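Board work, copied verbatim: DNA processing protein
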Amino acid sequence: MSLDEDLEEAAGGPATGLPVHPGLRRARAWLSRAVEPGTIDLWRYVEDVGPVEAVRRLRSGRAPERVRSLVGARAEQDATLADLARAERCGARLVIPEDDEWPALPLHALTVAVSAEPGNRRDQSDRTKAPVPPMGLWVLGAQRLDELVDRSVAIVGSRASTAYGEHVAAELGHQLGERGWTVVSGGAFGIDAAAHRGALAAGAPTLAVLACGVDRPYPAAHGALFHRIAETGLLVSEWPPGCAPLRHRFLVRNRLIAALTRGTVVVEAAARSGAQATAQRARRLGRGVLVVPGPITSAMSVGCHELLRDEQAGATLVASADHIIEAVGGIGTDLADLPERPSGPRDGLSDLAARVLDACPVRSGVTPERLAAIAGCDVLEVLRVLPALELADLVEWTGTGWRLHPPPRRPGGPGAAA
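↓ predict structure ↓
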């Protein structure tokens, strides 16, 4: 059946026994190839008349000129059956807003954000930055998309990462995976790959948002990594199978990484980087912006530190998965434990006991009267705290006075038996 015939049948009413009419899915597939994602005017037109009617009008030339100009020569082309067949051959599927699997709640933030865009195209955000919901998502993997992103965190960073950054990203990915959180990233070299591998090492699913077809690994060196991701998690793209990873598409897909997750963690970012752009998208969508600090001498952490210094960014410093989960998790249920602090015998001493202890000499013992004079208290008060200090092995009686208890000798140290 031709596309136009399928669309006409879909326009006539819902298909019997099918949750989604095949013509509606073909309409979404056609739109995913005909117009580059992030186009505000086309998305508004589809929302206004519906995807089936929008495609029918675009192909027949009945759509408004400003919308038809966005499609251009692609209006007469139809690769929907080829795209759907190619997806089926590689095990992928097209998930559309009409499916139960569609992550409607996370992506609703894009709908809210795009409603604030002006009507005049010249005043709208650049397409690579516009918060436009996707027409559909090509998905490769057995997991349900909506379930996988329900508890998810994005970890992004520099491609030219340092050993420090990759170690941190892998640790965070592993810890989040162990805690039942999905790690979302872009599958690129550096921080992205380290985060994915950390989650996989924990036996947890991870999700990669690609800037090309899900059947076309990019970078090619990550073919094995993408295969592992698809086995336990998902590969997701707005572009049909076979589409090339063009430069502008990486900027467009950043909004999806930010929208699908509860927060974005920036591990390493140069002064100008895609990771910073993703953090800016997250902030616009009301998502948490979390930043891992790095060495102040590292050029790969300049962007991280700038995010932390920018009061309007509202970035939160994080150093562990516990910090991340506390920031994006449930209120009162995902609190991070306080860091363990080393304790010593001096902890918990009263002000008086601490002053008497500080007054004790290291070598020769002194009288309680001398301690009282140095500590600035009464002799009776000194006599009252000295027994407790002695039981704690903090002071000792020399026979002539009180002094600090000497520290224990280390094995093999000076004075140890030969």
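The mean pLDDT is 91.
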